[in-house]
Amino acid sequence: MNLYLSISMKRLGVHISRRHVKKGDFSVQKLIEDEETLRNLLLIQKSHSHGDPNLTIVGTLFGKRYSVLPIVFFDKMVLSGMVIDASPENIFVKVTKTGGIRFFIHPRNIVSRKSLSKEQEQKLLHTLVADHLTPLFEKVCKIANCKVPHLQSLVSHNLYQRSHFLQSKFPDSKITAEDVLRMMTGAELFQNQRNPLDFTFRKAEGGSSTAAYIRKHCCLAYLQHEGDKSHCCSTCPHIHKK
């Protein structure tokens, strides 16, 4: 599991480093606080996108791209029993020449679940959703004129997909994966108020380990190809209509 996790994190662009500040361009906190920095990031992504899409498409796709961080957060909890303190000031970001995002996290901001009380663990989960993803997505949507719930649903969908995948690949992790998914998307995290990542997804007929659930909202990627739906993702609601 640890070898898989190490390879997966590298592939997803999430790195553990004691030099996280030097390796990143800026912290997520700066993205939230400095609109110009965030706008420039979106414009870089726009310039490297197919078909010169408008910012609404770029902003929506940002949510899908950014979901790799919550996915690694989920993986760490399920596969290694560790939790990331994803406070915005702890996570540093580097924008690649092609508009991709790499994340850098100091090892001191990753702690063992066994060392935490239930309340401490829930606080770290709440930090990821309420203090990191929500304000960042709100700023993205303000700049790009897209919808916060759409970005949140893309993250939630990828967490559901990831849970299904890990349960298939590591059967012994089934109960843990189900529990962590429930914690990350459930109401308990918000004192029984709605969790921003709480969505219900239809199961895909004959779904595979990588396409088990249908997205609630389209990521708009196909609009980069003149609306050609052959470019839709395999989990897109446009190709799984009721």
Q: Which properties best describe this structure?
A:
alpha+beta; globular; 242 residues; 9 helices; 4-stranded mixed sheet
What does this structure look like?
This protein has helices at 2-12, 20-23, 28-33, 35-47, 55-66, 68-80, 118-144, 148-169, 174-185, and strands spanning 14-16, 26-27, 82-84, 91-95, 101-105, 110-112. By secondary structure, it is of the alpha+beta class. The longest helix is centred in the middle third of the chain and has 27 residues, at 118-144. A 4-stranded mixed sheet has the order 1-5-4-2. A two-stranded antiparallel ribbon has the order 3-6.
Bin the strand percentage.
Answer: 5-15%
Order of secondary-structure elements: HEHEHHHHEEEEHHH
Rg = 17 Å
**Helix coverage percent:** 40-55%
Q: What is the residue-mean pLDDT, rounded to a whole number?
A: 92
Number of domains: 1
Extract low-pLDDT stretches. Answer: none
Order of strands across the widest beta sheet?
Answer: 1-5-4-2
Overall form: globular
Number of helices, counting only DSSP H or I runs of 4 residues or more: 9
Q: How many β-strand stretches?
A: 6
Largest β-sheet summary: 4 strands, mixed
How far is the first residue's CA from the last residue's CA? Answer: 37 Å
Structural class: alpha+beta
Summary, kept brief:
This protein has 242 residues and is α+β, with helices and mostly antiparallel strands. The chain has 9 helices and 6 strands; from the N terminus they run H-E-H-E-H-H-H-H-E-E-E-E-H-H-H.
